[in-house]
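(Deposited chain)
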Amino acid sequence: MKSLFLSFMLLLSASLFSQTTVEEIFSAKLDAKRTVKIKLPPSYGANPERKYPLLLVLDGEYLFSPFEGNLTYGNYWDDMPEVILVGINQNQERYDDSEFELKTGVPSKSGSAFFDFIGTELLPHLEKKFRLAPFKIIAGLDATAGFLNAFLYKDMPIFEAYISMSPELANGMDERIPQRLSAMKHPIFYYVATSDGDLKKFQNQIKVLDKNMQTVKNPLLNYKFDDFKGASHYSLALNAIPSALSQIFAVYRPISSIEYQEKIAILPSEHVKYLHEKYDTIQKSLGITMNVRLNDFKAIEAAILKSGDFKGFEELAQISGQQYEKTMLYDYHMGMYYEKTGEIKKAIKHYQDAFMKEEIGDLTKDMMMNKAEDLKKLMPKKGLKGGRPKEKATEEVIEEAPPSDTPADAPPAETPPTEEKKTE
């Protein structure tokens, strides 16, 4: 009953934390209240130490929902991480919020106030109230998509990823954006999209921007441009949102069959090094620290078996022993290492130890015990007590016979009688 109650409370907690809440935030910079929608991940309440990336959506009154749907679907299949989704409702204020000086191409008074609201009021409020990871994304459409580029002008941009859908570019942006992205010293994602049904003025500016972006050689930049066919200025967002999220979170995905075939299976060794680098990249690029997925373990295990570099199982055990210490995964990896390297006794010991620990994935107690029993059959059987001893090899020694006092014609000595086995 206690366990059932605890399970119910955890489900209730997850449900509450995954709901969307609305806050009215007063901005001294704008001298007005702004409505902000916030959706926390379902796991937020159950993981008090975990931090989550932030996705800040401008034009939240109509862009919040399509982003929410794509994130929910991607997270269900573990192709995207859970994020804290925040949308700013702008309504008729969006044009004032996105206003730029015509000559300089930087935010004007009203645009500058909104810029400061985001950087000096909203983000500090969110960081104080919620557990934000260092990785932050900002997204917008047309006017707000052009506005969000202003954050790139700062020496230390506060966002690491930019989703700019059919942006209305201010003066000089088509040249300044590539210049700023060329100078970035940390990983950064930049996505821009247009369509054949886009507004011609926007479409032409965006294509000039893309042409200039082709000259950027910064290896820290992850850039993607989409030119959709058959989409209008507004409907292109339905194509752009999943494309942009897929670009940004590509590194997060589990090892796919294509990744396995093209990048892992071809390695003669160092498969675990590949695994380390994959999760290091997730941490450095997205600010997400996570345990190795069980399916990713299985992919590396398959590559180790294929290559015959069995030391990899011992290296995997160093990871599984730390990240899944209460489960049988560590002993399974060590058992496989010793089994494949011919140390059968040690392999049996680890499979037996695994039997005493928690099951995980497709590893079960029955499986561990069966592996131990199968290996026992391969052990050499010991000789039975009282059996005929193995003949020892002896060297033939030829030497001169010593003199004997026994006459040559004396009968041979009697052999002592042996006790016959009684039979009934």
